[in-house]
Amino acid sequence: MTEQPELPLDPPTPAPPARPAPTASPPPGPPPRGVAATLARPPWWVRLMERLLAPWIEIKREPTVPPFVLDRPVCYVMENYGLSNALILDRACREAGLPSPFAPLPSDPLGRKRAYIALSRRGGGAAQGTKKKSYSQGLSRLLMSHRISPDMDVQLVPVSIFVGRAPARQSGWFSVLFSEHWALVGRFRRLLAILLNGRDTVVQFSPSFPVRDILAEQLPHERTVRKTSRVLRAHFHKIRAAVIGPDLSTRRLLVDRVLDAEPVRKAITDQARRDGSEYLEAWKKAHRFAWEIAADYSNPVVKSLSFALTGFWNRIYDGVTIHHLDKLKQVAPGHEIVYVPCHRSHMDYLLLSYLLYQHGIVPPHIAAGDNLNLPVIGSVLRRGGAFFLRRSIRGNALYAAVFSEYVAQLVGEGFSLEYFIEGGRSRTGRLLAPKGGMIAMTVRAFLRAPRRPVVFQPVYIGYEKLIEGKSYLDELTGQPKAKETIWALLRGVLEVLRSHYGKVTVNFGEPVRMDEVLAATDPEWRTQMKEEKPTWFSDVVDELAQRIQVNINRAADVNPINLLAIALLSTPKHAMAESDLLAQLALSKKLLAALPYSDRVTVTPMEPAEIIAYGEKIDVLTRRKHPLGDVLGLEGETAVLQSYFRNNVLHLFSAAAWIALCFQNNRRLSRAGMLRLGTTIYPFIQEELFLPWTEDEFTERLNATMDLFIAEGLLHVVNDEDGGILSRGPGQTDEVFRLRAIAHSLQQAFERYFIAITTLVKNGPRTLSAGELETLCHLAAQRLSLLYAPAAPEFFDKSLFRGFIGKLRDLKLVWICPNGKLDFDERLNNWEKDAKLVLSRELRHTITKISPEAVSKVASPAP
Known about the structure:
The chain is α/β, with parallel strands linked by helices. It has 32 helices and 24 strands.
């Protein structure tokens, strides 16, 4: 089979280096020979018909600036012929300042006084003849003309036209039936589609390629025509799949394919043997599982939901902002896209699908927990693309096989997916440790049928208020999670509609490409593709999960509520004088601007005074009048819940917080000493906050942060020898106050680490298992919070202690003995020495005191 030419057909493909930069306007001076002719006005009858269509058509061009130049005549290529398509194309070209498709090319090689061709036509009458053509006659004529005339040099520009796919306005529920899909419709249905949905028309121009490049292969004429047609059809298929989604099979057919797959048939046989039943009985059980899982995607339902959700979002939110979507659109064509958002709220499902649909991208199939498979609601979600997953599939091999095969079918058919690798909604505002189950299924599906490169698209979703805020607080204080029911959902919706939740921001992060991770893990990965579990499989899944979480954090949005929470939660009463709060907000914004975390992080443009006014406006901030100056603070449950929003952006201030923390209890420290401590602590905060830097990069960031603190007057250079001695101001100066406010965000993390080390050392080596140590740390932290200073709920979160203990094991600072207990050596004693530089003597004494008490109470046998 002849290899296809590498033509720049897809939108994300850049133009060749020798070509000029894309622009919608011709180069300075007169147009090249032949281009001037194509800039002529179209015939009178075309202008007349366009005037008749004008009230019904509103065009959105993608991209706004067409990605080609007018350095040679242009011939447009459409997927399907239709007069309406040609008229829409002509209007789009006129609005973009491009040549008209109805003006003939130089020498009129098409023979019809036009400058466009179509790959196929709607079925017609006798005029079309009886012989079915497998390629475009216009394309054949154009290629032959170039062979005959050496001076002819035309560029082909593929153009995709979609009527009713990017709804900027809602024109009525009936229009849903006539939105764009895969079927080639007749003239009457196309007319209805234009009348109902013409104001939602998208015209997508792709990069051009010269006809001369096609002929350079010097293949026979008919072979060249067929090959070019095949490449163009593949291109149009990619664009259509990216815009309206893959060609949908029915749910029943997809379920049949799942049950007919070899892994599922083997699982059915094994199930029948375990149950001692007939194969048919086990098959019926697998069929029920598949029917319970499978989505029933419906374009009309998706569009209907977009209508309904528009009013809902406008009612509860002040706006939804989206960043970096243009970069996703460059990646999407030709790739299997897996959306992997952070999981903060049940609104995440709806928001992402809604925004993608509104911006002309097909919504993904979403892996949803079966707790959402409620009467009525479950059916609607299923038709919106949700497929349901049981919370636990351990011990159910048949269900696991059916679900894994269903995911493989979706990947193989080119459906975009969405799932949350954290496994559940974060109750603390931090990213949770990733679970690799869905990623593993996606990797297996790709290895089994590597048809399209897989790209994981991290998505950061930032809220200013949480709909589930009250329930999260209840769960963190020990109350059981409320079970989802249809009645609870209805009551919740009514309550939500009576409230207001500020603004929402959705940021698309840097994509994670599976093939790059595979190549980095094992350059020879293709040799093990067909193995059931390659040796590198677990490493690839772990690396993908880690990169996804890191890139979610690298796309964070810093809103006014995040900045207020960072500042005010650093004080015992969660309050500040207005002048102090203004200064602290200004410092936070300066840190974010001077030391950018990533080019995808977005920060509110509000000035400090505007941030305070906004916090008061949405009832987050309370102002108390006082003769010596107003005091601004957080009160009641609002104060506790703000730790959630502080944790959203905690990673952005990690380097600054560490430097400030070192000066909490020290007036002077050497730069070298802080860097040594920083590299010691970095693996643990990197694990907890999913930080992106290597150890050397973190050291560079610490140095840059110290330089910034010096420039801001927060630190001073005492001695430049041996790397320099730095000092802070004395007593309760404003500079010391600001340093303490920055340090507070990381202090509780270091306290947790000290609790774990102290508890382990006090009990001695080979005494506690990892699970026992985790429980004791949780109780000690909880007791510390109850007896001394109230802490944020996540301070005693078991998962954070679990992550720290796991990192100790990864670094070989502790290890498991044959009896299952943790062993360690004298290296842990260095932690106590380092803790003296960071934690106060009183706090260290308190933690040391309560740790044995917690141990004795838990370790003692129950009466």
